[in-house]
Design a protein that fits this description.
Two copies of one chain form a homodimer. By secondary structure, chain A is mainly alpha-helical. Chain A is about 60% helix and about 5% strand. Chain A has a domain of about 70 residues: Multidrug-efflux Transporter Regulator, Chain: A, Domain 2. Chains A and B meet through helix 3, helix 4, helix 5 and helix 6 of A and helix 3, helix 4, helix 5 and helix 6 of B. The structure holds a DNA duplex (30 and 30 nucleotides). Chains A, B: GO terms for molecular function: DNA binding.
Amino acid sequence: MKVKDIAIGAGVNPDTVRFYTREGLLKPTRNPDNNYQHYDAEDLRRLRFARKARQLGFSLPEIRQILEQAEDHHSPCPMVRDVFQQRLAEVEREIAELQQLRNRMTAALSAWQDMPDGTPDGHTICRLIEHWDESVPESAIEE
Amino acid sequence: MKVKDIAIGAGVNPDTVRFYTREGLLKPTRNPDNNYQHYDAEDLRRLRFARKARQLGFSLPEIRQILEQAEDHHSPCPMVRDVFQQRLAEVEREIAELQQLRNRMTAALSAWQDMPDGTPDGHTICRLIEHWDESVPESAIEE
DNA sequence: TAAAACCTGTGAGCTACTCACAGGTCAAAG
DNA sequence: CTTTGACCTGTGAGTAGCTCACAGGTTTTA
């Protein structure tokens, strides 16, 4: 398989394949005749694995580590479980933060309905934003 | 005020102050004696405003635009309302995505409790991730 | 007076790609 | 058999919003 073939096989940009190769996640062999990279079924598996792991929030260094451990015939799975659980906690933190932000935003938007636009006078820049947090009732801030 | 003073006043890194200055969000004057930047109360207001706007998801170019319009004595607020509403929609999309991811992750974690670790054998790398989406029941995927 | 703490601008590093460029290779159409 | 178009190669830059490192100048403190 050449770059485009494996890229299509995993549904990614050929440049991503080249990038992953540079980063050491894929290890194609080389055709000495034309200097082209040659990827096999194992590379495709690794690439598909990498994309799934990326969806889960694993970083490229983490993925490379897992791939290397798998190569050394160690079992990477306990490590996966660990990173996975950490990542889950992070995702939940992100959700909570975004929900808080959304609440503040919707509250601010409704508060702004009653505020005039107000031309800046050299002292205030835009009342809508300068007072956005003060205009949000406490009750809306805590989820 | 020198860099460190305004940075402390807004609770940011001095390098961020320098960066915002380079980006044209702050316009300090210069002390010709020692070539130091001098920030005044207006700069501090602009910086605090910029940080609040950043929390709301405004980009630096957007913030600069608002600041410039305020300087020209135009009212930036209708523009703020627009960008704000777009940003709110984005935040809600992000929340939905993350919630979906969280559901898939928790479902996968509980499914993995019953799966052995499995040493890689040259065909599979880590069953936990390779089959993570297949192991998640449909019902868990749709919010 | 000497050391510590500040200031300056510039340039690189972070993430995970994506794209542009210049030049080499190959398959099929004319 | 040649040309055209689609592919391949590596390198370098761009993305956002900082953060940090560096080398050299200035001010404050002990």
